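cache lookup: miss for this entity combination. No prior model stored, computing from scratch. Input as submitted by user K.M.:
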Amino acid sequence: MALKGLDIFKLSPKKNCKECGSPTCMAFSMKVAQGTVSIDACPYFSEDAKTAMREAAAPPMKTIKVGTGDQQYVLGGETVLFRHEKTFVNKTRYAVALCSSMDDAVIEEKLAAIEKVDYDRIGERMFVEMVYVNYDPKSGAVKYMELVKKAAGLNRVLILGVEDPEVARTALDLCKDSKPILNGANASNYEEMNAVAAGAGVALGVSGENDSELYDTLAALEKLGNKNLLFNANTDSIKAAYATTVQYRRAAIKDNDRTCGYPSIVNVAKLARGDNHLQAALLAAFTMKYGSILVADHLDYAEALPLYGIRQNVFTDPQKPMKVEPGIYPINGGDENAICLTTVDFALTYFVVSGELERSGVPCNLIVNDAGGLSVLTSWAAGKFSSSSIAKFFEEQDIAGKIKCRKLCIPGKVAALKGELEAKMPDWEIIVAPKEAVQLVKFLKDMQ
Amino acid sequence: MPFTAKSGKFNASIRSLTIGIGDKAITLGGECVLPFYSFDAAIENAPKVGIEITDCGMAAEPESVQKYYEGCTSVTDMAKRAAEFDGVDFLSLRLEGGDPNGLNKSIEELIRIVKDVAAAVDLPLVVCGCKSEKKDEELLSKAAEVLNGKNALLLAAKEENYKTVGAAGLACKQVVGAESSVDINLAKQLNVLLTQSGVDPQAIAMNIGSAAAGYGFEYVISTMDRIKAAALSQGDAALQMPIITPVACEVWSVKEVIASESDIPEWGSAKERGIDMEVETATAVLFSGSDAVILKHPESVATISKLIKELV
Ligand code: SF4
């Protein structure tokens, strides 16, 4: 929430010297509030006043950056509670947990498993972005440092789960340049942990016995000048964890309580207590409602495929439809002699149609047009999926040069285009496919 | 200064709706908070989990589901078995064999199955039609007749057939499911039309449409978010009906689930992929505001039931 003109005026030098170009400090303050001039136009505003203003104008939820280079992630920074109000900006990230109490064989296995899930979904790389490295005091610091080194080899963002400031310092000496997260501040150690985190220039994760103690510790750290923070959702129960993520997010965004406005870490591995399907459910749940980093025991394809799909859906811009790259998509091993079907580049249409085509088992080529990412009927109505646009696209992409088959199926919903297409693309036999994608399987099989 | 969260309890609430009769009857809705916001106010009725079987019996089920029904020789056998699974609150019988573009079974044949299943189990029943709105008019009307006194849910009345299906529900005192396709305005319009045609708003559940996780699911989330906002924060009575979402029929046909282990070996177990797709989609649907979900795999049912118990 930005400051009002009067609030700014209260902080102003009240010299009325006109150097800023405004007749009075009051007039200047009004303009700053409207955003038409910058506060820097006045040379006399104190630094403290400027900082106070900047903070008041900052969004209610902090944006925290972790990691470096191509492994840098931005967390938090959300401005709304529901995606239809405005786009959610910073995606939930997933971590897999390792612990120094695990024996070497298990650790090797887990490290290998983390790398296994890595694929592309509508232009987005889907993989485990973070590794949670938990410190077990009984296994000792030496073993922990070895584990940190091993985990660092994966080139993912590390989250160091350590509550011992000395161990934390040593571990950070090994990896602080990659900007890991130090997750280990609580009511009894926060001062020392703050010094360690600030010294290494990394974000600090905070926990509490309950949401009130957590709040007090966050407030105390803010008082020490640290706002590079994350908080841990309560792990006593699923209910308690959900209460933290929802209530903190709501307090930050609706009630402007900035102490709650940090990204969250939810340890779903702990909450699921070894139940794999329950873990899958929790990953989906906290992706929907306000988890910034979710720590899982493991993440295999079965869990990842729906999860990354949900994340892509939750964080997509409600104004901008998801698009797939226009071009030729061979399906079921379709080669240059396989039948062609054409549709639009709206991601949902592509998914549904390609899914049905795969189900048919019939080799074919799906030719995805550039239709502005709209659905068949919408793009047709907008003139972006017409006989001319299809003919032009075929020409530009040299489809006829790449594919020998001259049978082209068009969506049943735009059956009206058949005649025009036959005129514009005389070499092609235009076939009207069914209106609904589910009927494609039967349609293709019948045609064979 | 301790953390004191402001309550997000609303003055309005979702209507309570009972399905089934006797001890096993279930009540959907009644809440005056957003999904699982039990910290704002107690949640009147926990969301419910249904299990789905179809008139096509074992043949229509994925391999990993068939195992649970081993030895069943009829749809009735399967219904009895399904009723025993952990976490099952109600039974959904999908009459997909009636699809004129599929097996096109006769209405008589399907109604016989409905009757047998209803006689065999005492769980609340949901009867889902075939894919044809036209055929559903007669199919669901006949189902309403033979289920007289069972307080079953007819899924669904759609824009094309709401008059007939609504009238059948009204005449035989069944609950009417109003099905729209992921659009708040269409959902509201159908509720209004059904109410105007004489159906008691207290006897309507909404199926606002769904999608599998990753398949345009953002529309499902936003439609449900907006429906709950209209119902609870603006007190829109035409959207205060509880939501029931059939998840099974969306998820078991997507590529991530049906791809064979030999086709994409790195994806691993097909069984696990099926369950996780169903579990994650169901979770996302519940966290968006659904008051009931319909699932297929007994392990999904048990997981979602456990999740709900932990949250309410
Ligand atoms: S330059 Fe600063 S002190 Fe001078 S009138 Fe403008 S706002 Fe006031």
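stored under new cache key. Chain A touches chain B through 60 residues (CB under 8 Å).
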